[in-house]
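In this supplementary section we document a worked example of the pipeline. Step one takes a protein sequence of length 805 as its only input; no multiple sequence alignment statistics are reported here. Step two produces a three-dimensional model, which step three serialises into structure tokens for compact storage. The input and output of this example are shown verbatim.
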Amino acid sequence: MIHSPNHADDLGLEDGLEALRAGSEFSGPIDPADEHDSYDHLALVHESRTEQLSTVIPFVERGLERGERCVYVADETEPTAILEGLRDAGVDVDAALDSGALAIHTAADSFLRNGSFDPDDAIAVLEDAIANATEEYDGFRIVSEMSWALRDASVEALVEYESKLNRLLLDDNGIALCQYDRQRFPPSVLREVIETHPHLIYDGTVCQNFYYTPPAEVFGPDEPERELDRMMGTLVDRTEARAELGKRRRFLERQNEITADPDASFGEQLQRLFDLGCERFGLELGAMARVDAERDRFEVEYASEDHEYLEPGVELPLSETFCAGTVGVEPSECVDDPESDGYGDAVVYEEFGLQSYLGTYVETDAGADRTFFFVSSDRRADGFTDEEEAFTRLMGQWVEGQLEQLQREEYERALYEIAADPDEPFDEKLQRVFDLGCERFDLELGGVARIDLSTDTFEVEAASGDHERLDPGTQTPLSETYCRLAANGERTAEVTDPERAGFEDSLAYRELGFESYLGTRIELENGPDRTFFFVSSESRDRPFSDAERTFHHLMAQWVAYELEYEERERALQASNERLEQFAYAASHDLQEPLRMITSYLQLLDRRYGDDLDEDAEEFLAYAVDGADRMRDMIEGLLAYSRVEAQGDPFESTDLNAVLDDVREDLQLAIEESDAEITVEELPRVDGDPDQLRQVFQNLLDNAITYSGDDSPRIHVDARRRGERWVVSVHDEGIGIESENSERVFSVFDRLHSHEQYEGTGIGLALCERIAERHGGEIWVDSEPGEGATFSLALPAVGESTPPSR
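The serialised model returned by step three reads:
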């Protein structure tokens, strides 16, 4: 195949190193050597065959791709190794050889074709080869192994050839890579050779050769003086470079100290970075601003010191600032001549008088993006260096990380505040979570839907905002929604390109017009599964970040907990209602046969009482007593079952009045037992007055009953504990074993026999049930022989209480 040559650009360093720079193993500056124009003559100094081939194979491969003629001169490397390396790289070697684009020679038929080495003859051969090649190809590329020179050339002749090759390649469309094996060539020879190459490749690094000597100097009369200049210049350059490196290292160390300070706030760290940057760049002011390119908005958020114009809160059109060149275009921007840089009409230049600017764009996942920058009213004569731009970007990257962390913490704190609010119903909390998620993810609508894979069902349960097709109760085939991704096993699924994700024909995309989606499946033990999701009709130019997905999963965990809790509460309430109905029905139905038993016992006593012997009368008395106690137990059970169902609505209740009524009802028992009851001022609480009266009547009656041999001494007081009042009834009676402190509140579980103390064993259980209905609790502190203190905790007036049921 005849290649049509294109000589628009001669070969140079960029062409020679293009393939090498693409590899991760290569590094190093690619800058021209000062005062010299020859960039197309390179020396490879290698120490192994692997290192050699990793350079020459891509070098030749790239030449063939560019349509150049490539010649490889082999000496110690077998030509087959070169050809196999090219084949492994994907080169059609046979076609290249057949067309003449690739040729393999040896030193004997090239450099030594006349039996010995002559520098001028070798240059003439190359000159002809370049001329012939460029008639058909875009250039000429030669790669030579130079180990033959150890046998067949003097050092002087080798240096002369390499120097004259520089002159040839400067004018002709060719590029050369000369290979030197460091293990073979003496250091003295390599030293001479290195001086003839503008650039070196060594140890995977492309190096600008400070020791390079141009051809005119090699063969000129003032070569010794130029050599001295280079040596002195090198010493100065190295000293200055070492000083600059030390300066850079000190600034980096100071930056690390600032950003790693665990005791400093973000604002304090930012101010110290501003000061560091101003010192590093020789500028007057450091600042950070919120920016919005779409709304052309710029608002200063932080500034390093007082400035006539740039202070926190100042707003400008973004287009009137130097930051306009940074936002969404370049990672960093510098201005050292506003007029020539295109800012001649900008407010910051014309009105604020700013002459120099160095800034970087800070993009965040949530909230406003920022620019982090430094400015000065003085113009910089020498512009900004790449290192200064890099240092600015480095500080900007830290700022970006801190902003994202602060935003994550802010959103997590907001979610916690919503979840921890005890006064707000779940439905209202869920709407606030939807709003929070829409803000965090920059989406329009949040929702929860019931799903069923087996029936392909998707039913909206709750949603934020108004959307005609996502109202609660709306049903859609699950397969027509983005939620099918989450339902099919992905922990957190996202869609940012519906067509690429396979939803081009779905209802969610085609009819509802949703372009973006983030959702997760919620699997519940006690109810149908749900999906928790956010959607938007606006497209999204980037995928959701790990931080966004994690926050979404965190919200979904809270939703799952609340849904499980609601399901359990509903199940528990239904169970309690069934139990209450059963207890009521059972106790109600038991009363009729019990009344019959009691009536017939009484009839038996009236008719035949005089005819009964002493044992029969005793048996009859036992039966009547048992029937009476059973009646009391049934009535207690009825009262227990009616606490929830037949309680009165809560109202502000004065416990002083309640206790006065109780003492009046117990007046006979108080007088008979010679009980002394003292009462401190009691509070108002929200509650059912009749049920609270039952509680205190039970507690005072028990204190009198279980007083022991001494007259009862009872004291009632109250103390505030947070949002509750704790009312305590203290007695000096027989007390209770500590292991029985919970048992006393069990239904029908008596600690004493009926012969010792009368009672049904349901009074304290009833007290506990009433306390629970009031959102409170009851407990006892006691030791045998030391009396007992029963405490009742109730919400204070105006504090949160559960609704009466």
